[in-house]
Each structure stands twice: as C-alpha cells, then as structure tokens.
C-alpha cells in the first residue's frame, strides 16, 4: 500500500467515529495481518498500524503492550481461517490438507520468516516468549488437540496416544526444518510426516499362513 | 574454575611448547565443552578459552572466526560421545537410549539453553546459521541417518521411509518443545515419540476370524 493510500484508509477509518471494540480489533488484526503476510515484520510499526487502522497509538499500546504481542495476535487472526481444521471424518486426509496449508503459508509468504524470527527472539526475550505461547502456540496446540481427540473418539487414533505429542511430530517437525534448514519443507515431506505416524514405519507383519 | 586455577592450567598448557594441531584442537574443544555444559554461552569468551587452553587468541580466531563457530564446534565435540548411536540390533531400544541421553543433556545441563539461543540467534544471523548447519546439525543428521538406514537394511524400518523425515519427528520434536515450551520434555514424551512412529498411531487391524 502506498503512503497516500494509507493516509486515505486511515482518514476513512477515523471518520467512522467511536466503534465497538470488537470492530476496532478486527480492523487492527486485518492491517497487521496484511503487513505480516505481505511484507514482513520489519515493516510492522505501531505508527503505521495506527495510520492504517485509524486506531490511536494509545489504544494500540493499551491492548498490545509490545510489537511482539501486536504481531502475534495479528498473525494468529490472519492465519486462523487458512489453518482451520476440517473434519471430513478422515483424519489422514484432514491432517494432510491442514499441514499443506500450513507449509504453504510458511514457505510461500513472509509468514515463515516472521514466525521463525519471533521464535528466535523469544529465546532471549522472556516477555516475547510468554506472548508467543499465550497469543499463538498455546491456542494452535489446543485447536490441533481438539481435532486429534475427535479422531480418537472415532477410533482412528489409538486411545493410549497422547495427541499433544503428535503436535510436535507434525507441526513441530515442520518448524524444525524452518528453524534449522538442513532439509527443505516439501509436499513429500508433509505427506511423509502424516503417513509415518498413521501407518507406522515398520514393515507389515507377515500374513499368517492360511491353513 | 577459579581465575587462579585457570592461570595454572593456562601456564601448564603453554609450557608444553609446540604441539600437534590435533592435540591443540582437542584441548580447545575440552575447554569450550566444559564452559558450555557447566556454565553457558555467556561465559564463553575467546579470552578465557585462550587462557584455559594455552592456545593464542590469534590461533583461535584463525580456526574459529566467530564465537558462534567456536561454540558450535566445541559443543559438537563435547556431546559427541554422549549422543553416540548404539547398535544393539534393536532400533526401538537404541533410539530410546539415544533420545533419553539427548533429552538429559538438553534439560539437565546448560546445553539446552546454549543450543536454543544459538538457533534463536541464527534466525537473524546468516553466518551463524551457516555455522550451525555445517558444524553441528548437518553432522548430527548424518549420524542419525546412518543408524536409521542400518535399521532399514535389517528390515526394522520399511524401505520406502525417508529416514531424514524421522530426524524431524524425533529430535526435531524435542527441539520444538525446547524452543516453544508449551509442554515439557519428559521421559514419557521421549518414549511416545519412538512408539508413535514404530507402532503407528492407529488401532490394530481386527484379527481376521479363524474359519
């Protein structure tokens, strides 16, 4: 967006007068999401978000005390729909389509860089680490856990499997390749993540001889 | 180690005169390993390593152009033996014992913090990212791949499984919990990582009725 367009958008937003908090937050999330997915975190500033959303910097700082909190909350909402968990009743198909969407966001938009930089910075910034868990990863874990537990109830995953471990072996495995890129995140990789867990990695037991 | 002890160790080392490069490097690795596993990366300085190993700072900088490179090379050698891959012929047992040793180093020594900080910093420091892959993660991947391929040759892992994906679903899953600590790295977690892959997560197929 050009500076001029930003100015117009900002004025239009301010022109609406006092709006319900939910509407204001939705505007902020939309603006933050557009910046993060379109440009990256370097271009995210309170100044610019205030101008584009028509929300005062004071209000922004009241709701999001740091750039990290603003980025994480905005990012969560920006990808919420793309990363939604379908339930077609087939856990293999549903995991595959969700993980493909996740891999696409991570590799084909600036989101991958945004998230890996936030994870990186959170190793030495405890406030950011807390914001990351409370505004992003904890909620993503909860949503994945819900879908996996439904599969468990439907008898597609064994009862004794801790579904939170699967979160680390699916999405965590993708993060591993994003953070330490020895190997690429490809479609074959995503497919293998799912089938290694659903099929197991050992050879099929020999068929008992028919008598 | 006290400053005084460090001085004595340094003088003793210098007293030996010109030593073979391998021996000098081994001394440096020992010193770097002791600092990283005992204290952490904040206490690692070229100054201190030079004093403790009796190797000149000029030589240190010639071999390791940055603190990151020195830390990664030293850390790789410090944990090489602890993280060695056994081959008892039973891949489940061997993965379990290696992953337990890995989890112990990561959670019970400052190494976990050292490695997560280096991964964190490498998100915005391209030189460190290259050093991380060439001096640490690439080689760890190669060693894990070797052991897993042997299991494949012995018929314990299916031929169509890409063993590099298993690296992400085992060690990568542990790194995920270390870097984004929503959930803890426990022994139950490590055990589940291995059994989810070896047994698969789906219920056993019903036994065909005997006729």
UniProtKB/TrEMBL annotation, chains A, B:
<dbReference type="GO" id="GO:0000976">
    <property type="term" value="F:transcription cis-regulatory region binding"/>
</dbReference>
<keyword id="KW-0804">Transcription</keyword>
<keyword id="KW-0805">Transcription regulation</keyword>
<dbReference type="InterPro" id="IPR011075">
    <property type="entry name" value="TetR_C"/>
</dbReference>
<dbReference type="Pfam" id="PF00440">
    <property type="entry name" value="TetR_N"/>
</dbReference>
<feature type="domain" description="HTH tetR-type">
    <location>
        <begin position="22"/>
        <end position="82"/>
    </location>
</feature>
<protein>
    <submittedName>
        <fullName>TetR family transcriptional regulator</fullName>
    </submittedName>
</protein>
<dbReference type="GO" id="GO:0003700">
    <property type="term" value="F:DNA-binding transcription factor activity"/>
</dbReference>
<dbReference type="InterPro" id="IPR009057">
    <property type="entry name" value="Homeodomain-like_sf"/>
</dbReference>
<dbReference type="Pfam" id="PF16859">
    <property type="entry name" value="TetR_C_11"/>
</dbReference>
<feature type="DNA-binding region" description="H-T-H motif">
    <location>
        <begin position="45"/>
        <end position="64"/>
    </location>
</feature>
<dbReference type="InterPro" id="IPR036271">
    <property type="entry name" value="Tet_transcr_reg_TetR-rel_C_sf"/>
</dbReference>
<keyword id="KW-0238">DNA-binding</keyword>
<dbReference type="InterPro" id="IPR001647">
    <property type="entry name" value="HTH_TetR"/>
</dbReference>
<dbReference type="InterPro" id="IPR050109">
    <property type="entry name" value="HTH-type_TetR-like_transc_reg"/>
</dbReference>
